[in-house]
């Protein structure tokens, strides 16, 4: 069954490249056929030389055949390599494109390094499989049949001796090849683990250093590297063993042919030319046998990689539903909220709900603050608002329509997200600001920079907007990164921005700058903030209190301070809220 599945995978992979594979096989076969005619001419040439006259036209034809054969085989190899490279490029495009669309809930379960290994290492392993198996294997098989035919025509008795010797060694080789497959799969997965571990360590290098865990992590990486090393070594040992076994079979067959042939020549049953012709034809038998062995061995080695690639390609992706549905809203006359949660239930794992019947509406202008203890479900509300996940029960509505029937691209263009640690990407400040947006004109860019208080920041940078921001934007301060992320979001003109406010301490100037930015932003679009600061909470037009996955209260700061005991107790526990005194403005 497993073998069948492997060949099926291989056939599916080859679909679309059949022309090139057949061209490589045809060239390879042409080369082999040219080679097979050589013994016939060689026999005439040797018999002629033995009779004392060199047949120059036959020798000339032989030389031409040698040259044509070499050219055909070189071209076949190039076509094979070209096909392998093209297929690897296409596979990588498919795997990386697929990975970018895999559902977050599925992606979060896998390990990033292993996925990188599959997208890069495994696709390269498949190239070897293609280069060594498809064209060569096919040509080898036809070449083998043709070589056997020529040998049978030359001398069936000698052929029988050859078949016995080659047959035995081929059977032994197939047994080795099976083990190669198992070793190959464990080598590929050990390399996946190694990459995952490395990615984990480099991603958290500050934590590793701060916890003085270099030694433990080095040991862990070493043991993954060792597992990959042992599996690769096992495979190399088996491949190495199979080479001499093949050579031994070839040498044994030659010796047998020369011994039996010599006695037949001396008894007059065959001429010296026939023996030379047969021996030459035998060398062309060795090549297809070796090619078939290589092909089978490559399929075994590559099938582990192909299996891992197929696993990635079968991961479920975010798919847009094909139809758009009418508004869910009733015939209400009040303005449609930009976002609404109606009795939303959601859990990352079945039977463990994190959100338990959430209801709220976000108007198309103004600022809404989400407050609540750690683990209450605030970030999860954002994840559903951004459609990283869909609710298990209930409905998320975007501008009055069930979000499940909206295209992901449209939804995320309408709802922008600025996360708390707002990582930027390596590149210049300009590239980060324009990431994912249509190129705005200079006036628009200046307006957004002014609104987010970034103009003085840009002016102070050595190359202005073209200053590189470093890996994950580390060359900017936390507050600056936050404002760049808000500016990036604003440039794509969303109707609602979700903002996870930074918890790290901001100095009074930065805090004032952020508050002013948020005020400005909430005049051009709606803003929903997971709020950790008194200033943000106090200036919000609406506050949602979240506790254990439920909205326990809704109102302004002064209303909640008066009416909601839980909000007051939350304020008592949270220093930043303790300081809040009811604002005369509220
Ligand atoms: N990706 C995830 N997979 C599984 N469980 C998760 C995931 N993200 C969050 N959780 C769990 O869901 C619950 C709510 O987490 P969430 O991050 O929404 O809370 P929060 O209110 O934003 O907390 P904080 O203020 O500390 O960020 C927690 O129990 C958390 O362990």
TrEMBL record:
Residues 22-301 form the ABC transmembrane type-1 domain. Keywords: ATP-binding, Membrane, Nucleotide-binding, Transmembrane, Transmembrane helix. Residues 339-573 form the ABC transporter domain. The keyword Transport does not apply. It comes from Actinoplanes flavus. SUPFAM superfamilies: ABC transporter transmembrane region, P-loop containing nucleoside triphosphate hydrolases. It is found in: Cell membrane. It holds the Pfam family ABC_membrane. This is ABC transporter ATP-binding protein.
